[in-house]
Amino acid sequence: MRKTNHDGNLTMRAFAGTHVVLLGWSMTKLKSRRVLGFAVHRTDHTEGEAFWLKGIKVFEETDPGTAQASLRSHPVQGFTWSDFTAKPGHEYTYRVVALKGQPSDLHEEDAIDITISTEVEDNGAHEVWFNRGAAASQEYARRFENKPPDTPDIAKAAHEWLSRGLFEAMLAFISHAVDSNFSLRVAAYQFSYLPVLEALKAAKNRGADVRIIHDARDPDVAAANNAAITAVQIKNICTERTAQPSAIAHNKFIVLLKNGAPQSVWTGSTNFTEGGIFGHSNVGHVSNNAALASLYHDYWELLRQDPVSAVLRPEVGQLTPTPNSGDEPPAGTMALFSPRSGLKLLDWYAERAAAAETMLCMTFAFGINKAFVPVFAMPFDGLRYGLLDNDGTTAAMQQTVASLRRKSFNRFAVGSRIRVNSFDKWLQERASGLNRHVPYVHTKYMLVDPLGTDPVVISGSANFSDASTSNNDENMLVIRGDTTVTDIYLGEFFRLWNHYAFREFAVANADNPHVRPQFLVPNDSWRDPYFGNTARSRQRQVFAGVAS
Fold first, then answer.
1. How far apart are CA 207 and CA 200, in angstroms?
2. CATH code for the domain in which residue 424 is found
3. Which candidate, 387, 457, 470, 523, has a CA 20 to 30 Å from the CA of 360?
4. C-alpha span between 3 and 22 (Å, rounded)
5. Statement to judge: residues 304 and 423 lie in one domain
């Protein structure tokens, strides 16, 4: 849900996903003179709570010495705020108040409020489930004393916290196959988390027709998959994808059928592994569109025959044709599968990214593909955000990312963690240890103009790469015009973008005695970067929906 309000000197917009509410507001530079920051008050009408939200930056003069402090005493020195403590299906009123005076004597001036409801993960047409995706966090360190997630005394609670409903939703989807009227068709890359395999076996034991295709072309993946399959004793319902050793069977989807008719599909970026579900960031996305599920089922039937790429590509291209250059996606939801001949689909994704008018958000698990470098290099009146697991595996890619970062319309965040107590009040963080190659960001999605009335979400298993287009088995959803789905993805994108942007900054400045990010500026000079041709000024304008 999204809302806008204008009140006196303030303009404000709110975007509510499931677990995140994004707020953006604006005042003119003249009207915001002597403002030391903004306090944010939240009323939860669902649970009957009301309080000032808390932040981590404080005035040095009035530092309470605690890990978090009330925004009424230590305000936001900016024009956006993200509430990461929101809950699905709740009604909230957010009140933003400008504070003037001195750090020791702040008084309230202009104020504005918005009442908004958060989304639920399952809205009927779509279900969108994001895991926590941030074991390396202050909250994890506080809750679980920074112990590994599999430590016996915290394992159950830690896994539930890290899952944040993703694992439970995956099992619930499988559990819909209650008897012999139902079938499940699984296409998997990494397929080794025993509770998932056991759930599929239980569905089989209930009489459901369960068939599984899994990757056996990557030797390490094949070994782990086969060990799990043998342990659970489901080899009789599994088929190895061995053809074309130079590629991988990278899908992660399940089709649910009733009486032979496809009903819905579970897809997204989540491998069926402990690391995929509980470790790095991932999404599980359910479409309850029967026609779309049927398309996935037809794709599964193609893969089941284990064809080589030369045979599979034209079949996939016929099943989901590559859009022509310049074609916009149709309203609603469509699917695009790989492998297919050439890189025209990748170029089309790049065209969609370049078509953004005010904002582009993209995740990159394995660096920025060359097709998207010109997109991020192109002058832009809005903002482009990139969330990367790393800044590239080669010196050339690292230089490219560094060059793109210097442009005022680009903002990047790269996965990182707080390794030492470099700044006051911060606890040392640890990675989950559940993932070998991609510790932080594993999602693969793009948001085109997510704050507008006609947004586009592209999400699935493909890494926006050459290999994911022409070689690997992949699937992507393209969703246009659905602001409910967009708001969920938008909130989750900025939850992790903000999380890693600060950690990357903290690591880079750990030994700099002149950097003190825990303290607020005791006057109104903090406003200077928020006006003029700067990234922060663009951020204020884009999120608040103002022209200048």
1. 11
2. 3.30.870.10
3. 470
4. 11
5. no
- Rg, Å, the chain Cα set: 24
Spatial distance between the Cα atoms of 398 and 412, rounded to a whole number of angstroms: 12
* Domain edge (last residue) among 263, 282, 316: 316
Q: Are 440 and 428 contacting, i.e. CB atoms less than 8 angstroms apart?
A: no
Residue that finishes a domain, picked among 252, 285, 316: 316
Provide the residue range defining the domain that includes 507: 334-528
Asked if residue 159 lies in contact with residue 278, where contact means CB atoms within 8 angstroms, the answer is: yes
Question: Within a domain: residue 329?
Answer: no
Q: Which two tokens stand for residue 155?
A: 């394992």
* DSSP SS3 for 458: strand
Structure tokens given for 272:
């069926």
The verdict on pTM exceeding 0.85 is yes
Task: Say whether the peptide bond before residue 339 is cis (omega within 30 degrees of 0).
Answer: yes
Mean pLDDT by 10 residues, the chain (548 residues): 96 98 97 97 98 94 90 98 96 98 97 98 96 84 89 95 97 98 98 98 98 95 97 97 92 98 98 96 97 98 95 97 96 97 97 97 92 96 93 83 92 81 63 82 97 97 96 97 98 94 77 73 96 91 94
Same domain, yes or no: 365 and 472: yes
CA–CA distance, 287 with 128 (Å, rounded to integer) = 9
SS3 of 12-52:
EEEEECCCCEEEEEECCCCCCCCEEEEEEEEEECCCCEEEE
Q: In three state form, how does the secondary structure of 340-360 look?
A: CCCCHHHHHHHHHHHCCCCEE
- DSSP helix/strand/coil, 121: coil
d(CA 346, CA 323): 10
Q: Number of structural domains, the chain?
A: 3
Asked if residue 203 and residue 298 are part of one domain, the reply reads: yes
Do 134 and 112 belong to one domain?
Answer: no
